[in-house]
Design a protein that fits this description.
Blueprint (H helix, E strand, L loop, with lengths): L2 H4 L6 E4 L12 E2 L10 E3 L12 H6 L4 E4 L10 E4 L3 H12 L8 E6 L4 H14 L4 E5 L2 E4 L2 E3 L8 H13 L4 E5 L2 H5 L8 E6 L15 H9 L5 E7 L5 H5 L19 E6 L6 E9 L6 E7 L4 E6 L4 H22 L3 H16 L8 E2 L9 E2 L5 H12 L7 E4 L8 H13 L2 E4 L2
Parallel strand pairs: 2-3, 3-4, 4-5, 6-10, 6-11, 7-10, 11-12, 12-13, 13-14, 19-20
Antiparallel strand pairs: 1-5, 7-8, 8-9, 14-15, 15-16, 17-18
Helix pairs in contact: 3-5, 4-9, 4-10, 9-10, 11-12
């Protein structure tokens, strides 16, 4: 790919310019010095421990045709060097171009929030696939392309990997993408270069605050809100007190953050129990027999209503499934060509998909006996565990037993807090390593 095509969406200035660079054929885009090859483009990025700006001499010696920087450097090699405002953002934009902007060939749905992202993403994918859309997924549980699942280290991978996965999805016939987008991903510009068709906000509570994460809750909230500056249609949990700050962009920008240009969001809608929500939850009831727990409710808009039955418990899953129905309803309405009978038939298929959705590690049922229910859940802090146990208490169990450990490399205070919650809400607590 020649440099002029590769850099078409990138704002930069030349620090050093070689002749004929615009037509130079670029052999690859990298930000890892070990991968540099003759004729490639290298993006220098300052990380938590190292800064590849300090390795420019080595990169030039390996034959990089273009080197991208975002701050002053003591040594300028005799190759093309360009300067950008933010090299992480540049890496994402260049990766998108390198793979042919695959997101533009997909209907894209992004999900952010403290809790519920993985479950909501799985529900959306199941709905769309049940209604005839081949849908790729990227998130905590991995990357799903057709029947293939690729493990991931982060909820939202690095930008090069994201674009590579999207290219594979397009090549394998996917027409939709559902993707979890973390606050860290927004802070590090991992999804720059993608304008999402739909962005979805689940909820916001204090989490991911500390060393190598976010300096404060205010920063955490602002990073969540950045997703809604690069989408065409925003939907969010209207019952959450942070809805306006996150979805409508009212969160205050921390002083040390750069101003991010906003993409015009054409419409904002909400879901929840509130009377002013566009998609409303009503008539919630708990169901379950023979060791299986579930929940039933009515999903309403001003124009129609549908009964949704979930084969998993939890009031939070009512929110997750309502979010999935809200975003999918717009896609299905387009599929139906606004023919009511076709649209209602697709909504029936969507409801069926929700009933059949079980997400690995998210209140995942293991059927052992009709005499009791056994479930595995990802709850890894006191906030999540309390929500989980309170939801299970609503089903009025004869006895509630909770066994938990704790994720590694986290504050050990999480174990104390989880122990306090479990001892208050469970009848028996078993603590593992």
């Amino acid at each position: 790919m020649n440099f002029s095509v590769l850099s078409a969406d990138l704002k930069f200035e030349y620090v050093n310019k070689k002749e004929n660079i615009a037509s130079r054929d670029i052999k690859g885009v990298f930000n890892d010095t070990r991968k540099v090859v003759e004729g490639s483009l290298f993006v220098c990025i300052k990380g938590a421990k190292t800064d590849s700006h300090d390795m420019i001499r080595e990169v030039a010696q390996k034959g990089a045709a273009v080197i991208v920087i975002d701050h002053d450097i003591p040594y300028v090699p005799a190759t093309t060097v360009i300067r950008v405002a933010n090299s992480r953002q540049a890496m994402a934009i260049l990766a998108s171009a390198w793979f042919g902007h695959p997101s533009r060939k997909l209907t894209t749905i992004a999900i952010t929030g403290t809790k519920g992202k993985s479950t909501t993403a799985s529900m959306i994918r199941n709905i769309l696939q049940n209604c005839g859309h081949k849908t790729g997924i990227i998130g905590t549980l991995g990357v799903g392309i057709g029947d293939k699942v690729i493990p991931t280290q982060n909820t939202t991978p690095d930008p090069y990997l994201i674009q590579e996965y999207l290219r594979q999805m397009v090549d394998e016939g996917c027409d939709c993408l559902v993707m979890e987008v973390s606050s860290q991903a927004m802070k590090q510009y991992r999804v720059a270069g993608i304008v999402y068709d739909y962005a979805l906000f689940t909820n916001l509570e204090p989490d991911h605050i500390g060393d190598n994460e976010h300096a404060s809750f205010e920063e955490y909230m602002y990073c969540k809100s950045l997703l809604f500056r690069q989408c065409r249609f925003a939907l969010g949990n209207g019952d959450d007190p942070h809805f306006n700050d996150v979805v409508r962009g009212r969160a205050k920008k921390p002083d040390d953050f750069e101003t991010v240009a906003a993409v015009v969001c054409s419409k904002v809608e909400s879901y929840g129990y509130g009377a002013d929500c566009d998609f409303r939850i009503s008539d919630v009831e708990l169901v379950g027999t023979g060791g299986e727990l579930g929940i039933r409710y009515t999903a309403q808009t001003d124009f129609n209503s549908h009964v949704i039955e979930l084969s998993v418990p939890g009031g939070f899953n009512v929110y997750n499934s309502m979010a999935a129905m809200a975003v999918c309803s717009h896609i299905l309405k387009n599929d139906a060509g606004f023919v009511d009978s076709v649209y209602n038939g697709l909504l029936d298929k969507a409801a069926e998909a929700l009933t059949d959705t079980h997400v690995k590690g998210r209140l995942e049922p293991l059927k052992i006996s009709d005499r009791f229910s056994l479930m595995i859940d990802y709850a890894h802090n006191a906030m999540a565990l309390e929500s989980l146990l309170k939801s299970l208490r609503e089903h009025k169990p004869g006895r509630l037993v909770c066994m938990f450990g704790c994720g590694g490399n986290r504050s050990k205070e999480r174990r104390y807090e989880m122990g306090e919650v479990s001892s208050r809400l469970a009848d028996l607590t078993v603590v593992t390593t």
